[in-house]
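FW: tagging you since you asked about this chain on Friday. Here's the raw sequence from the shared folder, copied in full. Didn't touch anything.
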Amino acid sequence: MARLVRRRKLMGEINVVPYIDVMLVLLVIFMITGPNPDKPASEATVSARTAALLRRDPQTPILVRADTTVPYGTVVRAMVLLQHAGAAKVGFLTDPVRPAPRGVINGAGGGAG
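HL: got it, structure written out here
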C-alpha cells in the first residue's frame, strides 16, 4: 500500500505579538524611571549624568535646547556646568526658522495706520 506523503504548507508570517508585549513593558518601565519633564533636573544630577556619559565616550557632543522662556543666564550656567563636568563639545540645538506669514514683515502685523 502506497503511503501518501503530505507536505506541510510553509508559513510566511512572523508572530509579532510577543514583540509588542515586550515593547509595551519597556515603554512602561521607561515612563516610570525616566525624568519628569515638569520638574527640572538639579545641577548635581546634570553634572553626575554628564560625567558618567563622558566617562564612556569623552568625545560625545552635548547639545543644549532651551526655549525663549528660559533666561539667558540659566542657559549660560548650564553650559558652564556641562564644561566643568568634562564636556569638550557643547552646542545649541535650535528649531528651524519658519517663514513669516504672508503680509507680515519683520514681525509687524498688517494693522491700520
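FW: The chain has three helices and two strands.
HL: agreed, and The first strand starts at residue 62 and ends at 64.
FW: great, closing this out.
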